[in-house]
Design goal:
alpha+beta; 21 strands; 35% strand; globular
Length: 377
């Protein structure tokens, strides 16, 4: 039985549909990341699960027991759902010590003082804050405050922990460190977690499964590798990595492969969805897939280096190919002048202009680039 089930959940704000009948199934022990741009519905879904948002219709069940069911009039209040919540702002009591903040949920549950002391001491040791129980939040760094908020949410062993962009207040370096230990801690304790973020790198680093949302529906779900390497839509391809994008026309296609006219050039690629000769769309090429070539061959392009930027450990290169530009990476400096670029067939994805069918809202079983997204034309 799934740890958490969401069925046909619909949430509206005035005349606007925020969630449009979302269904998903979350398994025990999994870390699931709800990913998407601002306004896609990911935080609304999390808040609905927590009981902080009241859906118009649908059903939410934890361990097989409904906590919200519009058809049967069930709406269990937030405090009775027994979920762990970690907010973006941490929401620590400033006048309470670290120990008192972590113990707060246990006191509400009328846990004995001896058990509170034992559980709080154990969880503080687990997050690296042993011996700091008598400090106040203002005496801690941002990363330490985040750990206290996490400890408070897990000390009473909730069935599911809900985390709403908990790393967004940390600086870049601390975020990189935090996403490693936060995944390790959750997995080591065998907890189930739902994590909201708009950062695809953070999502891929933390998740067992990613649920990519767009405009109140689920656009695609799968492992980080599946979403990054096999996007099913142009939206997913754009969101999950740094790309070169070019207008293209299908000249011919067979068995999922397509010969594409990209400006005055020809590239063989993979058709994402059924295509036909003469169809127009967008060719997407992952930036890291473009390589310098030593000789001409299939899927090679003559290009002139326009700009090179050192990123530390690698160079970002901007080439001009006819009237278009192509981004690439290189581990070493590249001299100015003309070069040959090679793009593997499997790294060229064609998405037709025809509107895609609405993403399936069937129940979803659960099981890095660091560069910003840049579109080139």
């Amino acid at each position: 039985m799934p740890k958490l089930e969401v069925e046909s959940l619909r949430v509206t704000l005035g005349q606007n549909d925020i969630l449009k009948g979302v269904s998903a199934s979350f398994e025990e022990g999994e870390i699931v990341v709800l990913l998407g741009q601002s306004g896609c519905g990911k935080t609304t879904l999390l808040r609905s699960i927590a009981g902080l948002e009241r859906p118009v219709s649908g059903r939410i069940a934890i361990d097989g027991k409904a906590v919200f069911d519009s058809a049967n009039g069930v709406d269990v209040p937030t405090e009775a759902r027994n979920l762990g919540l970690v907010f973006q702002s941490y929401a620590l009591w400033p006048h309470k010590t670290v120990f008192e903040n972590v113990a707060y949920g246990l006191k509400l549950r009328r846990t004995s003082p001896d058990e509170i002391r034992m559980k709080v001491t154990k969880v503080l040791a687990g997050i690296g804050l042993e011996g700091k129980g008598d400090r106040y939040p203002h005496q801690l760094s941002g990363g330490q405050q985040q750990r206290v908020a996490l400890a408070r949410s897990m000390v009473y062993s909730p069935p599911v922990i809900l985390l709403d962009e908990p790393l967004s207040n940390l600086d870049a370096k601390l975020r990189e460190e935090a996403r490693i230990w936060i995944r390790s801690l959750i997995k080591s304790l065998g907890l189930s977690a739902i994590f909201v973020t708009h950062d695809q790198v953070e999502a891929m680093a933390i998740a067992d499964r990613v649920v990519l949302m767009d405009s109140g529906v689920i656009a695609q779900t799968g492992s980080p590798e599946e979403l990054y390497g096999s996007p099913t839509s142009l939206f997913a391809a754009e969101f999950m990595g740094a790309n070169n994008q070019h207008r293209a026309t299908v000249e011919s296609q067979r068995d999922g492969n397509a010969v594409l006219a990209v400006g005055s050039h020809r590239l063989e690629g993979k058709a994402r969805g059924a295509t036909r000769g003469g169809e127009q769309g967008t060719a997407v090429i992952r930036v890291e897939s473009v390589r310098l070539a030593g000789h001409e061959g299939p899927n090679t392009l003559r290009a002139e280096l326009e700009t090179a930027v050192y990123l530390g450990g690698k160079w970002e290169l901007i080439f001009r190919v006819g009237e278009t530009r192509i981004r690439a990476f290189s581990p070493m400096r590249v001299n100015a002048g003309h070069h040959l670029l090679h793009v593997p067939c499997e790294a060229v994805w064609f998405f037709p202009d025809r509107p895609a069918m609405a993403p399936s809202q069937n129940r979803l079983p659960l099981q890095h680039t660091t560069e910003p997204h840049v579109t080139t034309t």
